[in-house]
What we know:
The chain has 71 residues and is α+β, with helices and mostly antiparallel strands.
Amino acid sequence: MEAIVYVKGYNGNTLSSTKRCGHVRWLLKNGKAKVIRKKPFQIQLLYQEEEKYKTKETQKTVLGIDPECQN
């Protein structure tokens, strides 16, 4: 099972989640992020993203529903 870390930007806006736990550890260790929730694990960046990386585009997602699945 891979750990997923949810990320919020400097202003509290939701960013894409990540599986790069080593990078998240580095951000926390160097004071560039803080933990805002432990379950599910969420961090908030303490720096503003560079303007060239900001986009208004959203990533397309697909939701798959299995009608045969029973809970």
